[in-house]
Write a structure and sequence with these properties.
Length: 213
């Protein structure tokens, strides 16, 4: 069975499709450049990794912001082809709005990271990043819940894949609220789930391109 349903085969703009493919790639590459490939870092360890990366970390921060902007573009495109029936469109719109807010938050995070990479921050930089990380993680996974509903009810992708998105959203939300991004274990779990979702988004993008090819 195809991961893309017949309803999802028509009308999605090329920009939206390719944004869905490119954004997770840039997100992962940006993360590697920011920390030198070390995942699950937080606080002073995160600050130390970003400082060590220097100019490379700045590039990673820029790529991560671009990834966020492309992801919002992709969701806007998906929302345009989502039918209004069963509140599918409403769910997609909520997810798109939440992602836009998340991207704005991440721009602030990236700005702090770039300042750290330039060596222009004080000792509180790690605390700032931890706080922003905690808020961003909660919002990131919370947004996946209405997004999965839009996928399921709108027929954009196969329901099984939409259930995967829902599972990531629920597990990630629980982890980000209960454990938070303020310890290594919590940060590692959150990072892994975000990486899994990036892979899922990439797969959805590939399937959409093939479906309309």
């Amino acid at each position: 069975m195809s991961l893309i349903t017949s309803q999802g085969k028509h009308g999605l703009s090329p920009i939206a499709k390719w944004s869905l493919i490119i954004s997770p790639i840039l997100y992962m590459v940006g993360g590697v450049l920011l920390t030198g490939g070390e995942f699950g870092l937080w606080g002073n360890k995160l600050v130390g990794a970003i400082t060590a990366q220097g100019e490379t970390a700045k590039i990673g921060a820029v790529l991560s912001v671009i990834a966020g902007a492309l992801y919002v573009t992709a969701l806007m495109g998906l929302a345009r082809i989502t039918p209004q029936e069963n509140m599918a469109l409403a769910r997609m719109q909520v997810a798109t709005m939440g992602t836009a807010i998340l991207t704005a938050i991440f721009i602030v995070w990236s700005g702090i990271a770039m300042a750290i990479a330039a060596g222009g921050t004080g000792a509180d930089a790690g605390s700032l990043l931890v706080g922003i990380d905690a808020v961003a993680a909660i919002l990131f996974f919370l947004v996946l819940i209405p997004l999965s509903g839009g996928f399921q009810r709108g027929g954009i992708v196969n329901k099984n894949l939409a259930w995967v998105v829902l599972g990531i959203g629920v597990l990630g939300f629980i982890a980000s609220v209960v454990m938070g991004a303020n310890d290594e274990t919590g940060k590692m779990i959150i990072s892994v789930l975000q990486g899994i979702y990036a892979l899922v988004g990439f797969i959805i993008g590939i399937m959409l391109v093939k479906a309309e090819g």
